Amino acid sequence: MYSFKNDYSEGAHPRILEALIESNFKQDEGYGEDCYTRKAVDLLKERMGRNDLDIHLLSGGTQTNLTAISAFLRPHEAVIAANTGHILVHETGAIEATGHKIISIEVEDGKLNDSHIKAALDLHTDEHMVKPKLVYISNPTEIGTIYNKYELEQLSRFCKENNLFLFMDGARLGSALCSEESNLELSDLGRLVDAFYIGGTKNGALIGEALVICRQSLKEDFRFHMKQKGALLAKGRLLGIQFLELFRDNLYIDLAKHANKMADILRAEISRAGFRFLVNSPSNQLFPILPNRLITDLQKDYAFFVWSKVDAENSAIRLVTSWATKEEAILAFIEDMEKALEGDNVILK
Amino acid sequence: MYSFKNDYSEGAHPRILEALIESNFKQDEGYGEDCYTRKAVDLLKERMGRNDLDIHLLSGGTQTNLTAISAFLRPHEAVIAANTGHILVHETGAIEATGHKIISIEVEDGKLNDSHIKAALDLHTDEHMVKPKLVYISNPTEIGTIYNKYELEQLSRFCKENNLFLFMDGARLGSALCSEESNLELSDLGRLVDAFYIGGTKNGALIGEALVICRQSLKEDFRFHMKQKGALLAKGRLLGIQFLELFRDNLYIDLAKHANKMADILRAEISRAGFRFLVNSPSNQLFPILPNRLITDLQKDYAFFVWSKVDAENSAIRLVTSWATKEEAILAFIEDMEKALEGDNVILK
Amino acid sequence: MYSFKNDYSEGAHPRILEALIESNFKQDEGYGEDCYTRKAVDLLKERMGRNDLDIHLLSGGTQTNLTAISAFLRPHEAVIAANTGHILVHETGAIEATGHKIISIEVEDGKLNDSHIKAALDLHTDEHMVKPKLVYISNPTEIGTIYNKYELEQLSRFCKENNLFLFMDGARLGSALCSEESNLELSDLGRLVDAFYIGGTKNGALIGEALVICRQSLKEDFRFHMKQKGALLAKGRLLGIQFLELFRDNLYIDLAKHANKMADILRAEISRAGFRFLVNSPSNQLFPILPNRLITDLQKDYAFFVWSKVDAENSAIRLVTSWATKEEAILAFIEDMEKALEGDNVILK
Amino acid sequence: MYSFKNDYSEGAHPRILEALIESNFKQDEGYGEDCYTRKAVDLLKERMGRNDLDIHLLSGGTQTNLTAISAFLRPHEAVIAANTGHILVHETGAIEATGHKIISIEVEDGKLNDSHIKAALDLHTDEHMVKPKLVYISNPTEIGTIYNKYELEQLSRFCKENNLFLFMDGARLGSALCSEESNLELSDLGRLVDAFYIGGTKNGALIGEALVICRQSLKEDFRFHMKQKGALLAKGRLLGIQFLELFRDNLYIDLAKHANKMADILRAEISRAGFRFLVNSPSNQLFPILPNRLITDLQKDYAFFVWSKVDAENSAIRLVTSWATKEEAILAFIEDMEKALEGDNVILK
To answer: What is the DSSP code string of C27-77?
Structure first.
């Protein structure tokens, strides 16, 4: 059984483990004031070509989302998110638990644009309603689509004009940046969004997200918020060491490229076999629409999510690749798919 | 410079790192549904001789405290804690941020007893005041003292009689259980408290606390609370693997014993040199009262907290030992202390 | 200028003011422990034919919604509401501010049924999502529609089967119960919902909503929640006196009947003039679709909300009647409408 | 039985009720946008000689405290209050329920000074602890003492220097301002505190507190916070009409003076009878220390709280006067006390 269920099925990239071993017996400060964390933060700033960024390392996506958003907003302020937004459905009300409403916007492709946000602003006009203040986007989105530079610039301009914060969930940011369809650089983000994070957990680390706060007014006292939300690890070095290793050279980017390359092969082969996709996702998550009988066949040897029913005979499944996905596994999956198709004599649309 | 500042200055016990490497490329489920976590939980139940316990692995102490306490209480219910309680001062209002007041009880030795709690109950009599519902204790306490079995039994009985939950912060539980003055077993806790945790971060793990929920009514839906508070790690295996390694044999206990033994040597030698302690702490935190000049001397080569001013010429410092503390370091410290005393001709009281 | 904007444009029914004067100099207990409140509660129980109800008097709708819902739910539990639900859009995130997500259900007529709720339950399957626990309905709904007995019985059965609380916002409950289309009695509610409130503010009182808690498990400690949310008035008698007066005889029902009667006349006359309604609302809120030119004409002498644009030339407006609406005002409105139609030679559809 | 239990035992001053009747059938806007509220706000600004104040009318003290404090603070910021502070013990954790810790300062006379606050600041030094940000004082305090102008100026200066907000709970502000020992004017407050409120409930109104926000940065969006906390009454005119009446002429001050005058007589007579007081309170709350036997005698005809046990034979009681207290009642109380003393032959200290 090989799993394409997600990008956190394995441990960490071996270099991460080596770095942990290497540093293991050196004494250092706790709570993220260690030399590894400081170096990692410096490296990240350098990589983004700016010194005026505040960077904090946290453990996971939900924790980062809830700590950042609750730190940025006043009690009556609300978040605008696509209906696919991770915070909206898949984080057990973590944002609401800090007191803030999320305004859901119905979208097809997981992406928000100016007119979506304008519509939400137009509906929230006075003190009997929440005040929309932060726009939450994910890149890639939860269904694998990505924002290109032009789209993000438009969104950024609109948010600035309307005094809204733009926050980017980057749990899979590596895959977005390395996508062939992307023309965004890490260094663009400091200018285009108010805060974002660089996901480590799904790209080679054991745990870890690097939150980058770009807007000056959002920086103050952020470590208080981390501590209050249980996000300040006593052994903060665990996070520092990992990000240091991921960004010491090009490892982070190389791992994301590998994940995307594996997805590219899968996508091409599934297309070639005549299948369509629920959504055009140029990153490491694919949503092919397959005949239910084929899905049942594949489930014997592969683990993946059945995402949604498309019609009586076909469903979309989710296949996720990662830094750890082996090319052999991809090829075996393709081969098994083809074999199943032949055996079943499935009529393709 | 050798640090006695705390018990999280180094990484993890080497066996932990080996276990991470060993399992690294095995695919498994996310969010704590992996085989390692399940095995670790089974082992812990076995160790406590009971099957009717719910056990969850979380990342750190503040996270565990805030997730558990907010899950256990209704909005108007409050916590009773000693004024030294970690949640009261050193967690940036994490409990209050979930909506609950902590009622502070002034104590000398960090320990609560029946009469303290009774006094708090007597003061909270109607709906104009919060309703005290959960008693928070730490073992060892934040100043290194420990509860013996008799004391805990008294407290447990009182809480049961008064329909209060008894919650034990066990960030340093290993040191309490292994203290020479303790007659408590891990297996006693399931019977005496409603929930507690077994701290891993300060006893050999990179991160990790094992929360044990003993009272039936507190178990329901706990994973929802974990997810909502950002405490459900995508790679939950990181926690499972560590607790599996710590409890596969006697490693957890051995590491705590080592920490205590190092503290015992320090305590004995400091006493022998004629110094008193701020508090009689039989665990891995010591609070010797030393002349300020001696402290300044020692600070050249050793890192530690100056805890409190005792009089014009003396202060209490905090020395913490851990699984990673080297006996050489202890002996060197003692030697350097003695040298400094000779050199300074310090007059001891 | 006569206002049909809402049902809280005037003060209180004169009998309410007389009751306040009558009792003004009698000393009594504070915080709702006065004799008036106790009598009002007894009267309400009698009216519902049950003694096993807990009844609390609060100041307004938002306060009642947030106090009750936050008292009833645990942190990970969520509310299900129609997209028109008052708590969803028009209470500034009051429910989310207490930590709970509201799951929005798209409906046409403001009313929830079993299949709506089932769909929400089917989407919330595990601990990565909130746990739906309370169904919030309004009767009448925010667009004036009402639940009949059969519909409410269906909903009640479904909620019981699925272990959900059913909560009814009754800010305009009088109008629902007195509607010609209703076959619900006040005494049915204790059996069909877990909690509901009887709105006073919009039916003759200065302020005041009577929350009735029917389900045993939701009753405990409710006054603590009221105090914590600022809902326990020092002069609680202000609420008690008003509900005592409203329910001492048939005043509450008489006032609601009057409001409905005024709406009935308006509805009939507007229909007779050839206009349709956005929604079929048998209570004291009407949503006629009128030509924009007619609306402009009417706005010279009447205040009301323009609710929504229907097409290029027509919009829906909201007309609200109340216990204080004068029949002359209704007749004058009709007359002015007819005059405007004649003058304008408006072509009716 | 005559009650000295509190200052909210009766209804409202008759002029308040007349004003309600007078305006009862005039239609006006809801939610505090009516002409009465606007006029009341203008009058209050005029009375304070400043136009740059934001004034909002709320229902009660706890509601005002929780709405204002939660609106003013960010999540990690805390309140400093005297251990007698109403929000600390007598509001069921209302402030903590909005997420904020209250740091308690032990004081004798209910009053905070610079050194108290400095001590709290010195203890809260980094992100592991909450950040003290708002100083909460009550004037009069919960034990009847008052701040004079000099004390308040000192406190104000200290707070400004330390970037702290100074918030004054004025539930009984009238009594403080009219106390013979006070040299504070209402117009001083705009300059000395960042926000405060003028209590109506305990000085002639049915309900109502006028919150005055003086600091520019705290004004923004305050009505959103009111709505979110259930503090925006649909019939906001109920509050406006009352404050308009109280401040249309000198009624508010006259009522407070009456309450104080009644207290002055009581205080003088009790002193003359040879009894001491628990605390020197120059406002409308008195805490005489009386022999237990005398207390028992008095309880036959008078209602009051027994505040605290002083020694085996004496206790302090609380006597509260108000705008509604009748001089006859005071004189009768004194007479009955004297009779009881004679009858009992009580030995005075």
So the answer is: ---STT-SHHHHHHHHHHHHHHT-SS-EEEEES-HHHHHHHHHHHH--TTE
Classify burial at A50, counting beta carbons within 10 Å of its beta carbon; exposed 0-12, middle 13-18, buried 19 or more.
Answer: middle
Residue B228's nearest CA partner among A59, A135, A96, C69 is A96
- Whether the CB-CB separation of A2 and B301 falls below 8 Å is answered with no
Q: How far apart are CA C206 and CA C11, in angstroms?
A: 6
**B334-337: long-range pairs with CB below 8 Å, 24+:** B334/B265, B334/B266, B334/B269, B334/B270, B334/B273, B336/B297, B336/B298, B336/B301, B336/B302, B337/B269, B337/B270, B337/B273, B337/B294, B337/B298
- The answer to whether A230 touches A28, Cβ cutoff 8 Å, is no
Q: What is the pLDDT of residue A346?
A: 47
pLDDT 10s digits, C263-302: 999 999 999 999 999 999 999 999 999 999 999 999 999 9
The C-alpha atoms of residue B173 and residue A103 are separated, in whole angstroms, by 44
DSSP D78-147: EEEEETT-HHHHTTTTHHHHTT--EEEE--SSS---HHHHHHHHHH--STTS-EEEEEEEESS-TTS---
Give the single-character DSSP code of A318: E
Give the tokens for residue B304: 């530690």
Give the pLDDT band (50/70/90) at residue C190: very high
pLDDT > 70? residue C130:
yes
CATH number of C2-6+252-344: 3.90.1150.10
Residues in B touching A14 (Cβ below 8 Å):
24
* Spatial distance between the Cα atoms of C80 and C101, rounded to a whole number of angstroms: 9
Spatial distance between the Cα atoms of D255 and D198, rounded to a whole number of angstroms? 13
- Residue A261: partners with Cβ closer than 8 Å, 6 or more residues away: none
Measure the CA–CA gap between B53 and B56, rounded to whole angstroms.
10
Class of domain D14-249: alpha beta
From chain C, the residues in CB contact with B226 under 8 A are 127
Phi, psi of A26 (to 5 degrees): -80, 130
Candidates C1, C66, C235: best to mutate against D (most CBs of D within 10 A) is C235
3-class secondary structure, D324: coil
Q: Which residue type occupies C101? A: K
Chain B residues whose beta carbon lies within 8 Å of the beta carbon of residue C131? 221, 224
pLDDT of A345 > 60? The answer is no
What contacts C191, CB < 8 A, 6 or more positions away? C156, C214
- Per-residue tokens: D29: 């806007």
What is the spatial distance between Cα D348 and Cα A335, in angstroms, rounded to a whole number?
Answer: 103
Considering only alpha carbons, which residue of chain A is nearest residue D70? A75
Domain A14-248, CATH among 3.20.20.70, 3.40.640.10, 3.90.1150.10, 3.40.50.720: 3.40.640.10
Cα(B152)–Cα(B129) distance, rounded to whole angstroms?
A: 28
Q: What is the pTM of this model?
A: 0.97
Task: Give the CB-side neighbour count of residue A125, counting CA atoms within 13 A.
Answer: 3
Interface of B with D (CB under 8 A): 75-76, 78, 89-93, 96-102, 104, 123, 127-130
The mean pLDDT value for B197-216 works out to 98
Task: Report strand pairing: C314-320 vs D2-3.
Answer: unpaired
Closest residue, chain D, to B75 (C-alpha): D97
Q: Where are the beta strands (DSSP E) in chain C?
A: 2-3, 54-58, 77-82, 102-105, 131-138, 165-169, 195-199, 209-213, 285-286, 289-291, 302-303, 305-309, 314-320
What ipTM was reported for this prediction?
Answer: 0.97
Domain boundaries, chain C: 2-6+252-344, 14-249
CATH fold of B252-344 reads Aspartate Aminotransferase, domain 1 (3.90.1150)
List the one residue out of B123, B155, B121 whose CA is nearest residue B138.
Answer: B155
